[in-house]
Design a protein that fits this description.
elongated
């Protein structure tokens, strides 16, 4: 008796599962019929469309259906898979334009507020690919404050934090939106010093972008930064971190014009990045790095003032 009941429940579950799959299929593929009213089998299933597991570039109609699906469903599994597919397709320049013209950026951007960390990460990844297009940045910039807050308050070294840092890095390749990060600079240094190697590299990429803009120099040099920042210039530090830290110093030196003359020193408070970069401990580290075994490191040091 119990076995028959179990079989009955299993059959009902299969029917419900099949019905759910068919609903997804209707949303993402639509229904095609031949002249006799028989449904033709689509070239790609709904599961394929939302999995991002194929190499084809979606067309306008498919992208529109996928955006509608993303906007209309509350199923976290479908949302995540749709974001992955959209993110993969946003790696293509043509689709970067199409998704914007379909008003897809707000649909994707709304998902960065989702409490599910995996969904938040996938939304950030999709926005990151879309942000390669300069016109898309105009629409994406409205999310920068929220992304900064998530990066600074979220779990350290998490996938969400790294995804947010990558997006901010893309958004600061040009000077257009860098000013939006001005108030977050001290906290970015805090994440830099607390994070693991991957986080350090990503924060340094972002800070290097900011340091190339003379308008950001004062904010960078005036930021309160822990003295442990100078440990980034130790000879044993991983090359990908050390070179970026040296590039940061080099860019800031250029922005100062006269390489940190005493005329500008009084404008920066004690404990600021300025006093770290123009102090004796930093000068000693540069003298040591001038004899570094790696040619790239030695070359980079030559562009920083001698002490």
């Amino acid at each position: 008796m119990g076995g028959a009941r179990d079989v009955g429940w299993m059959a009902a579950g299969l029917v419900l599962g099949a019905g759910a799959c068919y609903c997804i299929y209707k949303l993402t593929r639509g229904q095609r019929q031949d002249g006799r009213g028989l449904r033709l089998r689509p070239s790609r299933s709904a599961e394929d469309l939302t999995s991002g597991s194929y190499d084809d570039v979606l067309n306008v109609d498919q992208l529109q259906k996928l955006l509608y699906l993303l906007e209309s469903t509350d199923d976290p599994v479908i949302i995540e898979r749709a974001l992955v597919t959209l993110g993969n397709n946003a790696a293509f320049s043509t689709n970067q334009v199409i998704i914007r013209e379909l008003d897809g950026i707000p649909v994707i951007g709304s998902k960065i507020n989702n409490p599910n960390p995996s969904i938040k990460e996938k939304a950030l990844n999709a926005l990151n690919n879309l942000s390669v297009n300069v016109e898309n940045q105009v629409k994406i910039k409205v999310y920068m404050n929220q992304v900064c807050k998530d990066v600074l308050s979220g779990p350290l070294d998490s996938a969400v934090q790294l995804a947010g840092l990558r997006l901010l890095t893309n958004m600061t390749v040009t000077d257009d939106h860098q000013h939006m990060l001005s108030c977050y600079v001290p906290d970015l240094f805090r994440v830099l010093l607390a994070g693991n190697a991957r986080t350090k590299v990503q924060v340094l990429k972002l800070l290097v972008n900011l340091s190339e803009n003379p308008a950001m120099a004062e904010g960078l040099l005036g930021a309160q930064v822990d003295s442990s920042f100078l440990s980034l210039y130790d000879g044993h530090v991983a090359k990908e971190i050390l070179l970026r830290a040296l590039t940061l110093s080099q860019n800031i030196t250029k922005c100062l014009g006269k390489e940190g003359s005493s005329a500008v020193q009084p404008t920066f408070p004690t404990g600021s990045l300025f006093f770290l970069l123009y102090g004796e401990e930093y000068a000693q580290k540069m003298r040591v790095l001038a004899e570094h075994c790696d040619a790239d490191v030695k070359e980079k040091v030559t562009f920083i003032p001698k002490f």
